[in-house]
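Design job #97: recover the sequence.
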């Protein structure tokens, strides 16, 4: 199991705090420091679809020029954008044996981790 995100993201902070409070040690992968690769994004898109992986509500997306936003029409174009702008990935991503959870939902985490 591994948690992916950006440390200063409020939702990532909530997930990390929840994990700590439940004494669950999960390695953290910082998109800003450690990046993200195409294979990882392809795998995640295969699990949840590029539409869910792409955070269209976040600041990064909102600040993009309309031409860039309009160019994201399929998985390949989404992955190109996410490689360039990892901050546009919905966070956090909790990768586990059976797939991934996007965002933070305490109930979903508890159910997954049986806490």
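Job complete. Output follows.
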């Amino acid at each position: 199991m591994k948690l992916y995100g950006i440390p200063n993201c409020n939702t990532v902070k909530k997930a990390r705090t929840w994990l700590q409070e439940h004494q669950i040690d999960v390695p953290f992968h910082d998109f800003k420091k450690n990046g993200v690769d195409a294979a990882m994004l392809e795998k995640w898109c295969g699990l949840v679809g590029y539409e869910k992986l792409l955070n269209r509500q976040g600041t990064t997306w909102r600040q993009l020029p309309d031409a860039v936003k309009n160019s994201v029409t399929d998985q390949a174009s989404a992955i190109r954008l996410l490689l360039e702008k990892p901050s546009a990935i919905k966070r956090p991503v909790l990768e586990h044996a059976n797939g991934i959870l996007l965002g933070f939902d305490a109930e979903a985490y508890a159910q997954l981790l049986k806490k």
